Amino acid sequence: MSGLPLHGQVAAITGGGTGVGAAAAASLARRGARLVITGRREDRLRSVADALETEVEVLAADITGPETSALVVDRAIEQFGRLDIVVHAAGIFEKRPIEETDDAFWHRTLDVNLSAVVALTRAAWPALRRSAGQVVLISSVAAVQGFSDNTAYAASKGGMNAIGEVFREEGRADGIRILTICPAQIDTELWDGKAPDSVRGRMMRSSGVGEVVASLTASDRSIDFAPVTIRPPSNPWLAEV
């Protein structure tokens, strides 16, 4: 519908088959955006796409693959003729103490959570320049607050915040807006086996975070946002009084 705030715009979303990526896809679709969603599992991507009332292209791929970033951008341009929004929602999370943070674990975490973000943003930049588009970085409160056993993840998300500020400066002249969102605990599959149900029940819902993504993306473009931290009303790990 032409009255929707993102009508005619095209968003590419990584991690689009689950969690925040799937929630962002739903919220952006409700505001009129057409979508390219990518992730590792085609069945999950198809399930998300089938539930949305918008045009959706599905691309099953490893976001760290050498050709994936170009494929995502090419799919958007070939199918829709433009790219306006890139949402970096793919990510991995595992807690390990520093003595167990080996090179393979370190590099895998940074490859997914940071290097892939740089690669896709670089590939998308010319299209975003043409559309005066937006980049949404799903970072973490771990970028700004220390937690034990979290070296690799914290480094990847702290790096995401830092490159977001660089992107902001580089994109300013072309009207490219950067939205960095730093959530605390969200109840997604990243917490499978890591937190009991009693704790997960007090975490933020991914659907709510998806609404934050879409609301900020659809907001007045005369407004810029510093990195935005969002949290549950209370610490999920603290027992309810």
SSE topology sketch:
Elements: E1 10-14, H1 19-30, E2 34-39, H2 42-50, E3 56-60, H3 68-80, E4 85-88, H4 103-131, E5 134-138, H5 151-171, E6 177-183, E7 186-187, H6 197-200, E8 204-205, H7 206-217, E9 228-230
Parallel strand pairs: 1-2, 1-4, 2-3, 4-5, 5-6, 6-9, 7-8
Describe the structure in your own words.
The chain has 7 helices and 9 strands, in the order E-H-E-H-E-H-E-H-E-H-E-E-H-E-H-E. Helix 1 crosses helix 7 (206-217). With 241 residues, the chain is α/β, with parallel strands linked by helices. It has helices at 19-30, 42-50, 68-80, 103-131, 151-171, 197-200, 206-217; strands at 10-14, 34-39, 56-60, 85-88, 134-138, 177-183, 186-187, 204-205, 228-230. The chain has a single domain, classed as Rossmann fold (3-Layer(aba) Sandwich). The strands form 2 sheets. The chain has a 7-stranded parallel beta sheet, sandwiched between helices. It has a two-stranded parallel sheet with strand order 7-8.
